């Protein structure tokens, strides 16, 4: 999901005051370049330790110029017409793939819809557009980009909360720190949950005792449905422009063209 636009790039969200996450203000000041990062990180670690947070996963991290560059140029990803965006993010081959996955996992999708009221094509559209149905979830540790963005002045409080949440996930053993990898903004799993959203909405749908958004298809899809239900998705309701669930796309991604693309993609899968 990255405010990114989501649950994602561009989203400004209220902070989830969960578990160890307190959203407190740190002594060291934010910065707009890497010169103050080391001092900020030491201050963050000390403050986090005082709150009982294990910061061991932050060992050896550095200021991530790559994530800053991407963050400053996000709007470019949403340029062009809807057709051009669809060609990049939801081509005809994805529609065909989604229909095949629906057929192969019909029982799973039926159970998820019964539980959460979210239609299969909606979950398939998100899954496909986010990571190509899990093929492109990313392999970069979430901790360095999250710490960099927490230090960066543009959205320091938002990403400090996400960094807290990521460390909470690791500390409580929900996912081991070395498995917490994503596409570069700190998102986790096959539908790219920010850490705070993982804590709020991830579910263990396959019953193995783990909320695994990286490897478990059942957990990935059910958690995505739980996110939508938690934001007001109306069971069985329409999701096109002007319909009851269309506004829910905004909870997933704040970019208008992304919302339009998800609605069209889901409709193409369903038809």
Automatic annotation (TrEMBL):
Report the domain of life of the source organism: Bacteria
Question: Which keywords does this chain's UniProt record carry?
Answer: Signal
Keyword Signal present in the record's keywords: the answer is yes
**SUPFAM superfamilies of this UniProt entry?**
Lysozyme-like
- The leader peptide range reads 1-27
* GO terms assigned for molecular function: peptidoglycan lytic transglycosylase activity
Q: Which GO terms describe its biological process?
A: peptidoglycan catabolic process
Q: Which residues form the Transglycosylase SLT domain?
A: 37-240
Return the PANTHER family for the record: LYTIC MUREIN TRANSGLYCOSYLASE, MEMBRANE-BOUND LYTIC MUREIN TRANSGLYCOSYLASE B
Q: What name does this protein carry?
A: Lytic murein transglycosylase
Q: What is the lineage of its organism?
A: Bacteria, Pseudomonadati, Pseudomonadota, Alphaproteobacteria, Hyphomicrobiales
């Amino acid at each position: 999901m990255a405010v990114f636009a989501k649950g994602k790039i561009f989203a400004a969200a209220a902070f989830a005051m969960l578990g160890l996450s307190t959203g407190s203000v740190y002594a060291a000041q934010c910065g707009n370049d890497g010169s103050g990062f080391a001092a900020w990180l030491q201050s963050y670690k000390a403050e986090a330790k005082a709150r009982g947070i294990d910061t061991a996963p932050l060992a050896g991290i550095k200021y991530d110029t790559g994530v800053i560059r991407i963050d400053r140029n996000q709007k470019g990803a949403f340029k062009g017409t809807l057709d051009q965006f669809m060609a990049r993010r939801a081509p005809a081959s994805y529609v065909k793939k989604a229909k095949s996955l629906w057929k192969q996992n019909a029982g799973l999708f039926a159970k998820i819809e019964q539980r959460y009221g979210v239609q299969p094509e909606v979950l398939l559209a998100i899954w496909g557009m986010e990571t190509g149905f899990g093929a492109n979830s990313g392999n970069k540790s979430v901790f360095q980009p999250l710490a960099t963005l927490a230090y960066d002045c543009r959205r320091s409080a938002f990403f400090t909360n996400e960094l807290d949440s990521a460390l909470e996930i690791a500390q409580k053993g929900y996912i081991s720190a070395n498995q917490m990898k994503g596409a570069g903004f700190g998102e986790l799993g096959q539908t790219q949950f920010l850490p705070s959203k993982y804590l709020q909405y991830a579910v263990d749908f396959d019953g193995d005792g783990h909320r695994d958004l990286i490897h478990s298809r059942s957990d990935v899809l059910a958690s995505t449905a739980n996110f939508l239900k938690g934001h007001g998705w109306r069971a069985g309701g329409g999701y096109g422009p002007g319909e009851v669930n269309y506004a829910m796309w905004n909870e997933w991604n704040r970019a208008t063209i992304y919302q339009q693309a998800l609605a069209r993609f889901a409709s193409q899968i369903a038809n």
